[in-house]
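User: Run a structure prediction on this.
Assistant: Running it now.
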Amino acid sequence: MKTDLKKGEKLASRAFFLETFLAGSKVVIGILSGSAVLISDAVHSVSDVSSIITSWIGLSIAQRDPSKKFPYGYYKAENLGALIISFLIFYAGGQMVFSAWSRLFEFSLVRLPYLALAISLTDAIILFFFGGYEIKVGREIKAESLIAMGRENRTHIFSSLSVFLGTLAAIYKIPYIEGLVILGISFLILKIGLETAKNALFALMDVSPGDEIEKEVSEAIESVVGIEEFYDLRLRQAGPFIFGETRVGIRKSVDVARAHEIADNVERAIKQKVSQIDSFVVHVEPFQSDFRHLVIPIKSREGLTAKISSRFSRSPYFLFVNLKKENVKGFYILKNPYQNKKTKVGLAVAKLIAKQKSDVLIAKKVGEIVSYALRDNLVDVYQTQEKTAQKAIDKFKI
């Protein structure tokens, strides 16, 4: 996690030197050429440099280890940095609106037209590609400030081309174009500032990372063996990372050590599925249900009246029974695909049973290794001497 933040900090430092150079070039050439639209775009770039500094500082602070005063870390410093960036963007946009209004009714005297045109095109091309790189890295490490900077830099392809057109309009004395170009750039900047402020404020208010992330976390929880149910799933965004918690139901027959292991497995599965999860708390609750899913090895497809096979692993069929409040609510039969398998038959069958979400096996005899494999998948093993599946089920209900 800290490696991702370091990557973002390095990118912010590169952006600072690149955009400082471009902003300085536009300021100098804008003053020398007398292009008001180029100077306005330079103001835009200066605000970008301020934004980069803020993001740089935010990403640097976010890397600090949690302390007694900030036990959850400093990750939201990055969101705070993004919020400050939005204020700087608003200020730059507002200044340009006033500049645009005055330029609607007068022309700039452009003294070095070709140099002004060249710097506007160079700025557009460099920042368009660099902005794309910033967005890519920002999304990889979930850094809103980098994404915000990248989006703004991508818009330079429009603002710089507009500067190009505005400069041409000033050279050839075409009315209103220069002012309209500046006005268009200013509204584009204000729109970016609004989006950046919204994302930063939502993150500071512990916004949910969204339905897609919640779905991935839910799938990870459901994939863990031993989880009968889960509820009260809560996720919150903190800087580029996500924190969460949930309650999981585990059968009461599971001992404390095994329940703790299942909780650890849930956390591990979630972090593997969603890399930006920094911390996830699992609260274990006893699962109470009157539903059981039984499996019985049988010799034929006669259903509940079928005779129980004495050879568990090489039984021709398996009967799966849904039992609710001691009443059979339904059943189905699967043919044993491993009946003629030469090696590790028992383990293969154990996996088959676990995949069917069975929680009780009733059989005449089960090997020790297979018994351990089943219990690892939270399948309770019951031995029976009854001849038919129905009688074994009746005995189990007592």
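Residues 93 and 186 are 5 Å apart (CA to CA).
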